[in-house]
Amino acid sequence: MKKRSIDFKNRTINGITYEGRSSPTMSLKDCLSRIEELYETYKFSTPTEGDDPNAYFYAMRSSEMTDAELVLGADRFESKVALELFVLDAIVSHTLYWDKSIMGGNWYWKSKKDPDLVILREWIE
């Protein structure tokens, strides 16, 4: 399993500038909703050896999870890549942008669905 280093602020993957896969095709609200879905999958994914403790997003430790969550959870590496790549692509395509009326005037946006999900304003601007 190859590690991937995604940098939202610099818009890079493994140090190489990411050009994006698509143009904006959804609204900001739909984009945030999709991020919440991907985050939920990641948060409850099955931990793997070598998980990145400095990841952008919080994921449950095995000691915090039920047996069912541990057995049925998605692969942590795959769900992390899916979430981070979606966020990076949304930033590059300007699908994810800072709209004060939706995200507030703070330096971060916090999901109402799961307050552990935070998107920093500096990642986007």
Count every helix, treating DSSP H or I runs of 4 or more residues as helices: 5
Shape: globular
Nearest-angstrom radius of gyration? Answer: 15 Å
Unreliable stretches (pLDDT < 50, length at least 5) are: none
Strand content: 5-15%
Through-space gap between termini? 32 Å
Task: Give the structure's gist in a few sentences.
With 125 residues, the chain is of the alpha+beta class.
Description:
This protein has helices spanning 28-43, 67-72, 76-92, 100-103, 121-124; strands spanning 6-7, 12-13, 16-17, 108-110, 118-120. The strands form two sheets. The chain has a three-stranded antiparallel beta sheet with strand order 1-2-3, with helices on one face. It has a two-stranded antiparallel ribbon with strand order 4-5. A hairpin with a 2-residue loop joins strand 2 (12-13) and strand 3 (16-17). The longest helix is centred in the C-terminal third of the chain and has 17 residues, at 76-92. Helices cover 38% and strands 10% of the residues. The chain has five helices and five strands; from the N terminus they run E-E-E-H-H-H-H-E-E-H. With 125 residues, the protein is α+β, with helices and mostly antiparallel strands. The chain has one domain (6-18, 25-124). The model has no long low-confidence stretch (mean pLDDT 87).
